[in-house]
Amino acid sequence: MKHSIKPLVAALAVVVSASALAQQAPKPETLIKWRQSVYQVVAWNSARIKANVEGTYNKEEVIRAANSTAAIASSGLGALYAPGTEQGKGWHDTTVKPELFTDGKRVGELAGNFVKEANELAKVAASGDQAAVKVQFGKLQGTCKACHDDFKKKD
Amino acid sequence: MSRQRVWDLPTRLFHWALAGGIVAAVVTGKIGGDLIEWHGRSGLFILGLVIFRIVWGFVGSPTARFANFIRGPRAIKAYLKGEWQGIGHNPLGALAVLALLTLTAAQVFSGLFANDDITFQGPLAGLLSKEASDQSRGLHSLVFYGLLGIVGLHLAAIAFYTRVKKESLLKPMLTGWKASDPVLAKAAPVEHHHSPLRSAIAFTVAALIASTTVYAASGGLLPAEPPPPPAAVAAPAW
User: Fold this and answer.
1) 3-class secondary structure for B160-203?
2) pLDDT < 50 regions, chain A
3) Who among A139, A148, A154 is closest to B33 (CB)?
4) Which of residues 124-153 of A touch B (CB under 8 A)?
5) What does the pLDDT read at residue A106?
6) What percent of chain A is modeled with pLDDT above 90?
7) Cβ atoms < 10 Å from Cβ of B30
8) CATH number, residue A98
9) Closest CA to B221 of B125, B141, B124, B148
10) Which residues of B touch A (CB under 8 A)?
11) 3-class state of residue B129 by DSSP
12) Cα–Cα distance for residue pair A12/B21, rounded to 1 Å
């Protein structure tokens, strides 16, 4: 039995060193990919909420989409804008403006609005009133636009 | 007091509707949120107006016609020396009219294919790839500044006429008439001799072409969306 522990130790060593590697900061490219992906999920959620408030209303669908966006909004997205990700390519070239990395106060304010309205939408969606969801969804989209206007390049 | 005809009713209606439409489009576009839908609607409205004005520039009353008010560099020079006399758009102002119409058309056109990267997209954006639609959006943001500049120039020219040349341009655009000037009355190359019937037909033709264009631009000619899939293949529970 004694000799059989050696591979185990070796395997453990590999796992430990691998996790040590994993604890290194993610590459900028990875961070940019993550944040681009996150907004694609938000876009998916927004598209189905839009379809629901403009067409046949499916309460369960809206709740799932709203909860998903609220969870993403509160997930600590700021970490994806680490120094070193001002420029570069994720799935495509980043469209972030350099000001996002220098105007922390304004970014924090806009991000706070996004979290607040996303949480509120999840709450309103639970009540299931289509008209109220439409109004709150409009407010949430306003927070998207506010941030895009200030910090997203328009080609 | 004798007076002189300057602008026909359709030209005046067009002018004020365009002014209102542009203000509405700018305000709703800047605020966004729910109002972005109205930004799209005001854009289609503006498109209809621009198309109407272009057609009216060929079939409308004399002061509305491009052939009458678009002049060459010599006329512009004469105008700058103060030698121009006439009714309607002056030779320099004619350039501003062309610039305003062109930029407004470009702005609407780029908007039709743009998307806002939230949930809104122009009615024809689906015809392009996302990248091309993004580029159209970029153009849309760019042309906006050109439009802002030409509208500012337009307002400045009106202020210049009011304060320096002591001539109100606002009143003719509201009432259609200006106080008669004996010199101009002789110089005026334009007469309003069209019969009401002829004007009505011209207006109907222009309005028809404009509304058909708006219908096409709003996606009316795109193939109908496929029917929704049967309930059996609805989204799974997970």
Assistant:
1) HHHHCCCCCCHHHHHHCEEECCHHHHHHCCCCCCCCHHHHHHHH
2) none
3) A139
4) 134-135, 138-139, 141-142, 144-145, 148, 152
5) 95
6) 80
7) 11
8) 1.20.120.10
9) B124
10) 31-36, 116-119, 134-135, 137-138, 141, 235
11) coil
12) 70
Total of domains in chain A:
1
Distance CA A61, CA B115 (A): 24
CATH number of the structural domain spanning residue B56: 1.20.950.20
pLDDT of residue A132: 96
Positions of chain B with pLDDT lower than 50, given as ranges: none
What is the identity of the amino acid at A27?
K
Optimal mutation site among A69, A110, A141, interface B, most CBs of chain B within 10 A = A141
Interchain contact, B33 vs A134, CB within 8 Å:
no
Q: H/E/C letters for each residue in A73-111?
A: HCCCHHHHHCCCCCCCECCCECCECHHHHCCHHHHHHHH
Whether residue B238 is contained in a domain is answered as: no
